[in-house]
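Folding Problem: From Residues to Backbone Shape
Fields: amino acid sequence; protein backbone structure tokens
RECORD BEGINS BELOW THIS LINE
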Amino acid sequence: MSADPTQVNYEQDQLDRGCESRLGNLSTGKEALKKLGEIQTQYFNLTSKNRELVQQVRELVEIIDKEKNKLCPSGWKRFGTGCYSVLSVKKNWTSSRRDCLNQGADLTIINSSQEQMFVNTLLQTGVNAWIGLTDSLTEGTWTWVDGSLVTVSYWQEGQPNSHEGEQDCGEIVQSGEVGGWNDDGCFAENVGICEK
């Protein structure tokens, strides 16, 4: 008995459709596996980056904690992350700076109004004290002892005036809430304010 050609064609057509459907499913499966691989790679990269960021945050917290817990030596006062001390003996600017350096500090550098007000409170009324300010390298260009230029200033009215060209060192004059700066001869004798 011979097979009905119509039936054979129908079965062949069904078989072809089934194969096409399975091939389509395989193609879709391959694309899904590829996408899954890409997602896994992205996840791995993000996880790795997250570990790095967590480690960086831990290191920053450790640094901040050390700074917060940093104690000032006896007789020094804390402001922000610095420690400050007023030298007890009046000396010229260079000798005052040397005394600060011998204590692991330097003459103070003032970078904000809050710091200016704090330093002003360290002095008795009407007392002048050396700060780390000079124009001895270039007349009229005031720099701090670390070589940085002055970005905020608290000069008293009419100052700096470099009286007779002999005033190359900066001092703070305790007055009012903020105090002010004056230029004076580096040979004059004042107390100094050290910062570390």
The CA atoms of residues 42 and 48 lie 10 Å apart. The radius of gyration is 38 Å.
